[in-house]
Design a protein that fits this description.
101 residues, alpha+beta, 4-stranded mixed beta sheet, two-stranded antiparallel ribbon, 6 strands, globular
């Protein structure tokens, strides 16, 4: 859940409202993003970066630790994390710039 007293970022203006693809019970929509890379500072992980081209996941795992992140989009139904997947777009140049040559 969102931490009490910490405002959620307003990502709603970046979200697409038109479904670009449906597969089974999952709808895919576009969302503008700056980058597909996420820095991983955990000393327990053997890598520094992760690549994530999506927000949401069609796997539907009950133990998913990331489902709460749809709250940042103004979606407060945790199940929609698994049925409404956002495909990040517009991040090509920034992602390429941050990758080593």
């Amino acid at each position: 859940m969102i931490k009490p007293g910490v405002p959620a970022p307003n990502l709603a203006p970046l979200m697409g409202t038109q479904t670009v693809r449906e597969q089974g019970v999952v709808s895919y929509r576009e969302i503008r993003a700056r980058s597909l890379l996420n820095r991983c500072d955990s000393p327990r992980m053997p890598f520094t970066w992760t690549v994530n081209p999506y927000r949401g996941c069609a796997m539907g795992c009950r133990y998913c630790y990331a489902a709460y992140t749809h709250e940042f989009l103004g979606i407060d139904v945790p199940e929609q994390f698994h049925s409404l997947v956002y495909v990040k777009t517009g991040a090509d140049e920034e992602t390429a710039r941050r990758l080593p040559a």
